[in-house]
């Protein structure tokens, strides 16, 4: 393991354009559950009911309450050593972008500056019908509020199943991935498209891939370096190694 960590550190410190793709696994050590796996959210909850337009239309209150709960959970948790190590890394190597599938806002709260949120952000809301957007309002209660402009429902600005990803973010993600020379994949099962295409596309364009995950993922067979373990333990080791290299 030590050797693999040194190898990853050297790969990252020599990288001009680096992309990091994160999934629910990076926030697990903050106390936010993942989606798949034995204790994942989708084991006990139905994504069609809670994370689709049809689900929202058939029971707006149920879906609204669930997102409010997730918002409050995310707010009460803190970024963990993995989020913080990525902030350090951003300051140590030339051009690092974090592309996340997470909506928990923890990368931004940790202090990462270049963050692309592919699936939205739990703090943001928009109208179901018109272009009105809103940030969370403490006056809101257990029912979805109405849009001040058109009277329709306000919904979470989060990508639901069957919906398109935000276009600017997606285009940027594909562009920077294809120009990366190192691509770091952290805590994602690699089962949700189009996010799962990014490392594959990066690799096709010459990037080397590093993965950090507690188990095997859809990517494990295709990466150059697979680091098996917790992101909050492994990432700080990599960052320390780069720091030591730089100061020697
Ligand atoms: P998943 O729940 O599918 O996968 C989480 C991954 O994190 C798994 O591969 C775990 O092995 C790994 N993992 C768990 N703890 C870890 C740790 N401490 N360190 C490193 N890895 C760890 O989550 P995602 O791949 O993010 O979409 O799921 C993708 C999308 O599916 C989500 O964005 C969400 C969901 O439906 C939407 O809500 C649109
Ligand atoms: Zn509206």
Structure description:
This protein starts with a helix and ends with a helix. It has helices spanning 2-13, 25-28, 41-44, 47-50, 53-58, 60-76, 81-92, 106-110, 167-178, 197-204, 231-247, and strands at 17-22, 95-100, 115-117, 120-127, 133-135, 154-158, 182-186, 208-213, 225-228. It has 2 domains: 1-32 and 79-119 and 165-248, 3-Layer(aba) Sandwich (Rossmann fold); 33-76 and 121-158, SIR2/SIRT2 'Small Domain', CATH 3.30.1600.10. It contains 11 helices and 9 strands. Strand 4 and strand 5 form a beta hairpin. The strands form 2 sheets. The chain has a 6-stranded parallel sheet with strand order 3-2-1-7-8-9, with helices on both faces. The chain has 248 residues and is of the alpha/beta class. Helix 1 packs across helix 11 (231-247). Bound molecules: 2'-O-acetyl adenosine-5-diphosphoribose (OAD) and zinc ion. Zinc ion binds next to loops.
Q: How is the secondary structure organized here?
A:
Blueprint: H1 2-13, E1 17-22, H2 25-28, H3 41-44, H4 47-50, H5 53-58, H6 60-76, H7 81-92, E2 95-100, H8 106-110, E3 115-117, E4 120-127, E5 133-135, E6 154-158, H9 167-178, E7 182-186, H10 197-204, E8 208-213, E9 225-228, H11 231-247
Helix pairs in contact: 1-11, 7-11, 9-10
Residue-averaged pLDDT: 97
N-to-C SSE string, H for helix and E for strand: HEHHHHHHEHEEEEHEHEEH
CATH class annotation of the largest domain: Alpha Beta
Number of helices: 11
Structural class: alpha/beta
- CATH structural architecture of the largest domain: 3-Layer(aba) Sandwich
**β-strand amount:** 15-25%
CATH superfamily grouping of the largest domain:
TPP-binding domain
**Physical arrangement of strands within the biggest beta sheet:** 3-2-1-7-8-9
Assign an overall shape. Answer: elongated
Amino- and carboxy-terminal Cα gap: 22 Å
Task: Determine the CATH topology of the largest domain.
Answer: Rossmann fold
Number of strands: 9
- Low-confidence spans: none
Proportion in helices? 40-55%
């Amino acid at each position: 393991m030590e050797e693999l960590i040194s190898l990853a550190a050297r790969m990252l410190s020599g990288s001009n354009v680096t992309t990091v793709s994160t999934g629910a696994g990076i926030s697990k050590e903050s106390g936010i559950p993942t989606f798949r796996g034995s204790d994942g959210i989708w084991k006990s909850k139905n994504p069609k009911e809670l994370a689709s337009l049809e689900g929202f239309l058939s029971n707006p209150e149920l879906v609204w309450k669930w997102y409010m709960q997730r918002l409050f959970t995310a707010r009460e948790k803190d970024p963990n050593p993995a989020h913080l190590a990525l902030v350090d890394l951003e300051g140590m190597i030339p051009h690092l972008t974090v592309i996340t599938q997470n909506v928990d806002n923890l990368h931004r709260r940790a202090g990462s500056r270049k963050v692309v949120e592919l699936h939205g952000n739990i703090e943001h809301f928009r109208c179901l019908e018109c272009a009105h957007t809103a940030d969370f309002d403490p006056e809101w209660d257990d029912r979805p509020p109405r849009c001040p402009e058109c009277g329709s429902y306000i919904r979470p600005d989060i990508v639901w199943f069957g919906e398109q990803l935000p276009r600017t973010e997606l285009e940027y993600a594909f562009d920077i991935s294809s120009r990366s020379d190192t691509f770091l994949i952290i805590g994602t099962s690699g089962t949700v498209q189009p996010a799962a295409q990014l490392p594959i596309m990066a690799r096709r364009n010459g990037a080397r891939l590093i993965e950090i995950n507690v188990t095997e993922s859809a990517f494990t067979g295709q990466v150059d370096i697979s680091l098996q373990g917790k992101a909050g333990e492994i990432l700080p080791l990599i960052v320390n190694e780069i720091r030591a290299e730089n100061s020697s």
